[in-house]
Amino acid sequence: MERTKILVTGGAGYIGSHAVVELYEAGFQPVIVDNFSNSQGSVLAGIEHILGVRVPVHNVDCNDEEALRAVFAEEGDLRGVIHFAAFKAVGESVAKPLEYYRNNLISLLTLTSVMREFGVEALVFSSSCTVYGVPDALPVTEQTPTKKANSPYGATKQMCEDILTDIAAAPDNKLRTILLRYFNPIGAHSSARIGELPLGVPQNLVPFITQTAAGIREKLTIFGDTYDTPDGTNIRDYLHVVDLAKAHVVAVQRLIDEKGEAIETFNVGTGRGNSVLEVVHTFERATGVKLNYTIGQARVGDVPAIYADVTKATEVLGFQTTSTLDEALASAWKWQQSLQNS
After folding, report:
1. 24, 100, 132, 153: which one is catalytic?
2. CATH ID of 4-185+241-269+310-321, from 3.90.480.10, 1.10.1240.10, 3.40.50.720, 3.90.1150.10
3. What is the mean pLDDT of residues 307-332?
4. In sequence order, which ranges of 4-127 are alpha helices (DSSP H)?
5. What pTM value is reported for the model?
6. Which of 97, 98, 162, 265 could form a disulfide with 152 if both were Cys (CB 3.0 to 4.6 A apart)?
7. Tell me: the pLDDT tens digits for 148-160?
8. Which parts of the chain span the membrane according to its record (predicted)?
9. Can you give the residue ranges of every domain in the chain?
């Protein structure tokens, strides 16, 4: 049976690579578009090892309209797109706002223009819980008001959502969109062939934990312990990246089946919050490895606490996470060990 083709922008990235695997295993034919500015070619070998097949790859920047148009023309019968390709580090966005606005906004505008030209009408957009800013109440639902973002990264996600909402409201619109607001993906594929592969110093907590445990980093710095939380450290909703990848498969299928409205929004998380210190102690318990950590200054742009209400995703998408925090952290450590041994 012929597989339904789905274009995956940023498909060689952390979340994108796991989504490519889950799409293929669900019967789709993923097609990767990536410019490898924040990913490595070795990821493609990992995907091929897991699936036993080579997934089509186009080394293309989503800001390059001519190159993207050529991909759509070559592939021909694309049924949908999952758009991961974006700059994604909160701290870096504070330091480099212009780069974040240029890349994240123009890539979406270029992609949606090319999709319209080629009649591709299904889009899953990689959004973020950063659109909620500092929420007044927890957990956040999809109806929680979005506030001024705490970082340029968060602001770009808000603007992209606004763009897609306006497109959906246009009288001649044919694009159907699902906005997935991710919380904090962690962990790696059970094969330890793909996982989070930060270039340079990690911007996210878990790869910094695993690199510290492996001796690559001297110590882990926890950014602030005076937040208004039970132990003073930030609280986040950490979900296994494979669970998050599976949410994309469900969302793509919903769009292809033409269910729901022209645009829909779903939180993707576990529905639970864990503090940074809880994650540290859970990692130590799950792996038996003690961590050297210290408390540093709070980072600009960090929200004190946020976690998801996942009722809508459960009831409407029929999606729930299944992995525990221990399992996700153990898989991250297994991935780190595989990197050390390769």
Report:
1. 153
2. 3.40.50.720
3. 98
4. 14-25, 42-51, 65-75, 90-95, 97-118
5. 0.96
6. 97
7. 998 999 999 999 9
8. none
9. 4-185+241-269+310-321
